[in-house]
Design a protein that fits this description.
By secondary structure, this protein is mainly α. The chain folds into 3 domains: 229 residues, no CATH class; 92 residues, no CATH class; 141 residues, no CATH class. It is built from 20 helices and 6 strands. It starts with a helix and ends with a helix. Bound molecules: zinc ion (ZN). It comes from Cryptotermes secundus. This is Transposable element P transposase.
Length: 496
């Protein structure tokens, strides 16, 4: 949203109401990069309270969302054995100049999980209803970003991440979101901070108008779907990123160097993509043509008579990369996930119940581990549910939540003495099995599969808890070391 770009678009004839221009009888829609809008909005929210109107706060009057609310939630949450906001780190809440450019950090703070945590705490009466305003704002921004990030990878329940079509929720969301965005007022000391809405606020409105315009045009041309993900500049940034890698970190290449680097990139098939650690999501794009067929054995080459338009894995992108990422994604919701204390224990319990019951058809097992009625401990899970109508998460039974809670308390107390031992998992497993009461599973649950269930629960517990404990420990030690280094420097300076 640089002033130069805004000016250029204006000169070309694009406006807020009509975000497109014609050149040589060809229409071009002008869209601001949604990931940048997300970062700008997060940056504004860091510095300013936001006054907004939302249908989700139970009042027609404007309410005020505050970054401090998220900060309070984070500070309490981060010391827990299991966490609601397991993805968040200090950097998320206090981004440095460098990390303020990272889209993922912004997306993880302005997220459904943060909104669900705040709503759950208000719903169970622990926290004042003021926090709902922050939840509503965070959710609104999360939905906006999702609606511009629709593509082929459909996350469970996240319907806005599906492609835009006449049946998708995008158009309906954008109608409501436009009203919401227009109501935003960034405050400083309780008064409006800006004379005009900041560029990123207009940017969202422009993007909504532009996307709707593009969609109308595409429909006339016979298109049934639009991957809204393709309306951002990730592919462009990915390409430039690839070129930069071939420039030897030269951030000011000459034309000749740039052309050579581009050629190298094409020849190696944008091979860097497997390395990860980029700021953009993999855009899923493959080169229309590449030179890999040159190196392929003849019989393989003949199976691909044309090298164009093949969906091939580019060299340097090992197949296993996707697999590891998948495993990581499957595991991560389990690691973290209550009041706050209870919520996180319940969330982890739900995830344990899901894992233990995976592929099990025994009704007695299901009845003893899951719950049909909404327990107060499960309110976070309820808000975390992405769809209002469809249930996709697992709700643990009260007994299971209790047992997991007891086991966590036990592990917290013995981990410091056991962490340095060989086969630590074995030690913890023995301790849990000999201390925690699992008889309820045999008595009121399933006598047939009793032992198998206990074994699975304990295995899930140790596998979730131990790595998380180590992570917490390491973070504490890093912080302590940093503290000591600062003190040392201060001492040296004050002696001079
Ligand atoms: Zn059973």
């Amino acid at each position: 949203m640089g002033a130069n770009n805004v000016k250029a678009l204006k000169l070309l004839g694009a406006s807020k109401r009509k975000p497109f221009f014609r050149f040589h009888n060809q229409e071009t829609a002008t869209v601001y990069d949604p990931p940048h809008l997300l970062k700008c909005t997060r940056n504004l929210f860091l510095k300013h309270d936001v006054q907004l109107k939302s249908e989700h706060v139970g009042t027609q009057l404007p309410v005020i969302a505050k970054w401090d609310h998220i900060l309070k939630l984070y500070e309490i949450d981060k010391t827990r054995p299991f966490r609601l906001l397991y993805r968040l780190t200090d950097t998320h809440l206090n981004p440095t100049a460098q990390s303020s450019m990272n889209v993922r950090l912004a997306a993880q703070v302005m997220s459904h999980t943060v909104a669900a945590s705040l709503n759950a705490l208000v719903a169970t009466g622990g926290w004042s209803s003021e926090y709902m305003a922050t939840a509503a704002f965070v959710e609104e921004v999360d939905n906006l970003f999702d609606s511009f990030n629709g593509g082929t990878s459909v996350g469970r329940g996240k319907t806005l991440r599906c492609p835009l079509s006449d049946n998708s929720p995008h158009i309906e969301l954008w109608k409501k979101a436009s009203m919401g965005i227009k109501s935003w007022i960034f405050l400083k000391d309780g008064k409006p901070a800006f004379l005009h809405p900041p560029p990123s606020q207009n940017g969202w409105l422009i993007d909504i108008t532009a996307a709707q315009h593009v969609w109308r045009t595409l429909k006339e041309a016979g298109f049934e779907y639009l991957h809204t993900q393709n309306l951002n500049q990730d592919p462009l940034e990915n390409t430039f990123g690839a070129i930069r890698l071939n420039c030897g970190s030269n951030n000011n290449p000459t034309v000749g160097q740039f052309v050579n680097a581009l050629k190298t990139s094409i020849i190696s098939g944008l091979a860097f993509r497997g390395l990860g650690e980029t700021n953009c999501e993999d855009d899923g794009a493959t080169l229309l043509d590449n030179l890999q067929s040159l190196f392929r054995a003849p019989e393989t080459a003949s199976r691909y008579p044309s090298t164009s338009h093949d969906k091939e894995t580019p060299a340097g992108m090992p197949e296993s990369f996707h697999v590891t990422q998948q495993v990581h994604m499957d595991m991560s919701p389990a690691v973290p996930a209550g009041e706050m204390e209870v919520f996180s224990v319940a969330y982890v319990s739900g995830s344990i119940a899901r894992q233990v019951l995976h592929g099990v058809s025994c009704d007695a097992c299901k009845t003893c581990l899951t719950s049909e009625v909404l327990l107060s401990a499960n309110v976070f899970i309820y808000f975390k549910e992405c769809s209002d109508t469809e249930q996709s998460l697992t709700y643990p039974s009260e007994k299971l939540v209790e047992t997991v809670g007891t086991a966590v308390t036990l592990m917290e107390s013995i981990m410091t003495e056991a962490a340095h031992l060989n086969s630590v998992e074995q030690h913890i497993t023995t301790a849990i099995k000999s201390t925690v009461d699992f008889e309820w599973i045999r008595c009121s649950g399933c006598s047939l599969h009793h032992q198998r269930i206990v074994d699975s629960i304990v295995r899930c517990l140790t596998r979730i808890y131990i790595p998380w404990w180590c992570k917490r420990r390491n973070r504490m030690m890093t912080e302590a070391a940093r503290q000591r280094a600062t003190e040392r420097k201060m001492k040296i300076l004050s002696h001079q």
